[in-house]
Amino acid sequence: MNKSRIITIVLGMLLLLSLCACSPRFPTGAFETAAGTMLEFKEDGTYKLTSAFGKLSHQGIYSVEGDLLTLMTDTNCDQYNLGKGVYNWTYEDDKLVFHLVEDNCKSRTPLFDAKVPYYKYPYVPKR
């Protein structure tokens, strides 16, 4: 191989590695709001949302593609055939925030509102 071909291959590999490093990885684990609502995303693709009073309100299967979170199934919403929910997500400084893309389940949308950030559990307010 000549030098220019080796350099081209190395530069191509570096470009691919940098593209992979730029894609954020969806955070799994437990999160809570300042009011105590709990949200857990497991690595097996399941999620559950529990009220501050400990009542399970939503659970199901999720998928992530890039910065899109899709709630594929939901025990609460599925009984009314309301379909999946799609949200953009961001995660920075242990804060997970959702922005509505499309969701017909009105009992779920306030829980995935950008005004209600989720913090990595346990939530410790900054003073």
Structure report:
The chain has 127 residues and is α+β, with helices and mostly antiparallel strands. Helices cover 19% and strands 37% of the residues. It has two helices and eight strands, in the order αβββββαβββ. It has helices at 3-22, 75-78; strands at residues 29-32, 38-41, 46-50, 56-65, 68-71, 85-92, 95-103, 118-120. The chain has an eight-stranded antiparallel barrel. Strand 3 and strand 4 (56-65) form a beta hairpin.
- Outline: globular
The fraction of residues in strands falls at 35-45%
Largest sheet: 8 strands, antiparallel, barrel
Number of helices: 2
What's the SSE blueprint?
Layout: H1 3-22, E1 29-32, E2 38-41, E3 46-50, E4 56-65, E5 68-71, H2 75-78, E6 85-92, E7 95-103, E8 118-120
Antiparallel strand pairs: 1-2, 1-8, 2-3, 3-4, 4-5, 5-6, 6-7, 7-8
Annotation keywords:
127 residues, alpha+beta, eight-stranded antiparallel β-barrel, 8 strands, 19% helix, globular
Short description:
By secondary structure, the protein is α+β, with helices and mostly antiparallel strands. The protein has helices spanning 3-22, 75-78, and strands at 29-32, 38-41, 46-50, 56-65, 68-71, 85-92, 95-103, 118-120. The protein has 2 helices and 8 strands.
